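hiii, so i know i said id send this last week but things got crazy w the move. better late than never?? heres the sequnce for the chain we talked about at the cafe, plus the structure i predicted for it. fair warning i was half asleep when i ran it
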Amino acid sequence: MSEKKEPSIWDGFKAFLMRGNVVDLAVAVVIGAAFTNIVNAVVKGMINPLVGAIGTKNLDNYSSCLSDNCQGDQGIQLLWGSVLGAALSFVITAAVVYFLMVLPMAKYLARLEARRKAKEGTHEVIEVTELEVLKEIRDALVAQRGSGHNEQ
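okay and structure toks below
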């Protein structure tokens, strides 16, 4: 019996790199990094100043003390302002991405899909109409043959 040789780790790695998924993933990461810059610019340049006009821009200074003495680095401090700021930043960033990028793209793709379906529907109607005409012609020819044979 012949023994089958298992592929080496190097062969497996080359096969992994040659798959299309790796290239697609690399492109997605690069585009994602560029996209992150756009989103951050919108949040920093437009959204944060609007939020700052209502309240404060920096929530990092808000905290609560759990021990008797919280001066400097001593004591147990809960930095809830930092957590609130990060959560608010996440919600604002998600809203910017959704309302300025995801939603318009979804509407655009839905319009394209509707146009494609409308074209397909028109094409099917034309095909059905042509088929109906051919059936009528066939029926008329059969009727002529039938009536012609009866007369002879």
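btw The longest strand covers residues 64-65. thought thatd interest u
miss u guys!!
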